[in-house]
Amino acid sequence: MATCFYWLLSMSLTGTLAGLIVWLIGRWRRMPRRIAHGLWAIPLLRLWMPFGLPSSASMLNLLPDSTYTPVPVSGQSPLRMTNMVQLAQTYSPLTYRTTQVQTVLTATGWVWLTGLLALLGVLLLAWQSNRRDAASARPVSGYLYRSDRVRSPAVYGMIRPRILIPSDIAECDLPSILAHERSHIRRLDNLWRLLALLTACLHWFNPAVWLMLRAFLRDTELACDESAIARMDVPARRAYAHALVDAAVSRRALASPFGGSPLNRRIAALCSFRRLTAGSLAAFLALAAALAWALLTHPM
Question: Is the alpha carbon torsion for 110, 112, 118, 123 positive or negative?
Answer without folding.
Answer: negative
